[in-house]
Amino acid sequence: MAAPLIYISFPGTAREALNFYAQVFGGELSLYTCEQFGRNDGPPDAIAHGMLTGPVALAGSDAAPGEPSLHTEGIMLSLLGTDEPAVLQEWFDKLSVGGTDIDPLALRSWGDWDGQVTDRYGLRWLIGYQIGE
């Protein structure tokens, strides 16, 4: 079963944001400009399409003038149990830099670890894991 790919329209920060996510999660990042795609609906160096592949896949571009850009409310990107606890802790810490810890990554009363952070680009993440039984 295929999973949805998160595609983000950034307000002119796609290059910076996608590089940030590549530093957080690792993987391979491909960036293509409007000029490379022969597009004239934005500056030649604007990102027309970017794709991060690896442990976490994200895609995005710079929003064209007049098009809406990233604004989220009532949605989180969940990484619950998607990797080893040490890796998830590292991702949480890196996403927190320049962002806002909504709820620290901590042991919960039900026995699992989880936390929420909004990163510097406005994406809210839910990260957590279970410790082996």
UniProtKB/TrEMBL annotation:
Organism: Glutamicibacter uratoxydans (Arthrobacter uratoxydans)
Identification of the protein by name: VOC family protein
Glyoxalase/fosfomycin resistance/dioxygenase domain span: 13-125
Pfam family, one: Glyoxalase
PANTHER family: PROTEIN YJDN (PTHR33990:SF1), PROTEIN YJDN-RELATED (PTHR33990)
InterPro entries: Glyas_Bleomycin-R_OHBP_Dase, Glyas_Fos-R_dOase_dom, PhnB-like
SUPFAM superfamilies: Glyoxalase/Bleomycin resistance protein/Dihydroxybiphenyl dioxygenase (SSF54593)
